[in-house]
Amino acid sequence: MTNDALLEHLATRRSPPIASLGGDVSDEAIRTMLTLAARVPDHGMLTPFRFILYRGEQRFQAGTLLARRLEERDGPLSAAARQKEEERFSRAPLVVGVVFTARDNGPKPIPEWEQFLCAGAVCMNLLHAAAALGYRGNWITNWYSDDAKARAILGIGEEERVAGFVHIGKTAMTVADRARPDIDDLITEFSSANGD
């Protein structure tokens, strides 16, 4: 039996602008979202990910610290640029950091790239879980994902990496669809003759 509501969600899902996300996200909703997000393909059952929650006043503190880091790295910021950085984590009521943590897994190790795919799947699942609970989300990385000092500011360990920061809240905004690739251009049929 088909699930028409799920098909409709998958066919129309769009990420709203982060600044459009508002309201509150309850502790119960967060726990449900994260529980569902963690139900991903995970070769070897390694759980190569963890979550960091940025909410409440700590969102503003994170932004202030990121602005200082960017200024330290790149030089003085204009007032507008500083404000943009200071608001990075406070535009939505909740930001979930999905942090990739590679696992050492024995004599026949699961490749690190495969583990990272697992963490990426967590981000996508989190968007779906948020939608199922009546919220919307936007998955980004941004400059601070690739800056070791910025990652440390955000509570991410030296050996860890960012799979994504998922901004979550409520919005009534309808986001127009964007151009999508022609699916026929993305499909080939395997033939053993191609290897001859």
From TrEMBL:
Transmembrane segments: none annotated. Gene3D superfamilies: NADH Oxidase. Residues 25-170 form the Nitroreductase domain. GO terms for molecular function: oxidoreductase activity. It comes from the Bacteria. Its cofactor is FMN. Keywords: Flavoprotein, FMN, NAD, NADP, Oxidoreductase. Its EC number is 1.-.-.-. InterPro entries: NAD(P)H_nitroreductase (IPR052530), Nitroreductase (IPR029479), Nitroreductase-like (IPR000415), YdjA-like (IPR026021). Pfam families: Nitroreductase. Binds 1 FMN per subunit. FMN binds at residues 13-15, 39, 43, 139-141. Belongs to the nitroreductase family. This is Putative NAD(P)H nitroreductase. It comes from Notoacmeibacter marinus. The lineage of its organism: Bacteria, Pseudomonadati, Pseudomonadota, Alphaproteobacteria, Hyphomicrobiales.
